Amino acid sequence: MVVVSGKELKKEFDLAQAQASVGEVITFRACVHKVRGMSGFSFVVLRTARYLLQSIYTDGECEGSLEGIREGCYVEISGRVKAEERAFNGIELALTKITLLSKPAAEYPLKVSQRRLGCSLDVNLDNRTVALRNPYERAAFKMQEGLVQGFHQFMQANRFTEIHTPKIVAQGAEGGANIFHIDYFQKPAFLNQSPQFYKQAAVAFFDRVYEVAPVYRAEKHATSRHINEYIGLDFEMGFIDSMYDVMAMETACLRAMMEYVKAHYQPEIKILGAEIPEIGEIPSVTFLEAMEMLRGTGSAGKKFDLDPEDEVKLCEYAKEKYDSDFIFVTHFPSSKPPFYAMNSKEDPRVAYKFDLLFRGLEITSGGQRIHDYDEQVEKMRAQGLDPADFESYLESHKYGLPPHGGLGIGLERLLMKLLNQPNIRQASMFPRDINRLLP
Predict the structure, then answer these.
(1) Fewest CB atoms within 10 A around its CB: which of 384, 396, 417, 423?
(2) Which residues of the chain have pLDDT under 70?
(3) pTM for the whole thing?
(4) Which domains occur in the chain, in start order?
């Protein structure tokens, strides 16, 4: 019988502990990132879960041999720590013992040990499990972790309850053709486009809720800004006075997320050369103002959304006039989906709906939702929908909801622009698009 104690493994590399152990011998496990043979000794660069560490193997001074150890081998090593400003993270190890744990069956298809892979995006994605061993490539996903952790901390500090909603549903939150159909035990079902319906229902009993989860859009786009499965950072909040409460919450949330990343992810910021924005007040323009600014008076009646070029120009305007990397666009036409966006009381031709643009790209869609049952039914009919098809969703309205609103942030889009990447697939660990289902 084996008894599992749950005791923590002690051979995980700890950089702070290593830096504080100059003159001492430390032991940990890592991957061999690069071996460079010299006369009488070799440099062995080790890759841990987050860091690179330089070590020196000297013949006769290390128990165990470098024979058969090459790039991609996993090893357990012991070594004496030496301060070395020129080395990775300011320390170097003089190896005293090396033990081979496992070795690869084949050579890497990519140049993992180089600072940058130097291959095309398609080659990168075709060999993704190897590409992500490159420190530059993987650093993006430590940054992604930082954004999510910052989001979690802010949400919980502001009394939001984390929820987990179904991804297999009977109806799509957005509707239309951009929805994946699945066979669910001989019943028609869909992959959820958004947790919207469930977020609104949960506001009735939690007041404030949030979720970090995948969402699915069956859009047949092959652009640099679209993927078909992405991670949504969603929240919904009750007892609001207007959509501006939601916009203020997002501004504070993004500010906290950026501060969290700066405080905890400096190694990745340095590797990636990331420019983390300072967020003060975020400027806002209405959709009508944006259209007049971009195309002249009278043009807004011909459009219902922003083009990619519009988003770029509006962000250039925000940067030039307000020194802001972000800009809100509000009051989109009420005839445009979604059907749950509340129409303006001052001008029913527009809705209390907003987008947030960041460095030339929409990263957020949100607004104030309809909480009144009759008003929601009326808007469904105005958009050509049959309320009978949404009976389950309307139960929340029928039995009462507080005034509420919320939003969804596309995590990959946020990361893409934070790192100034040209393609959203670089911000997805294993992206799914119209052409890619593997790896």
Answers:
(1) 384
(2) 2-10, 173-177, 297-302
(3) 0.95
(4) 15-102 (2.40.50.140), 135-427 (3.30.930.10)
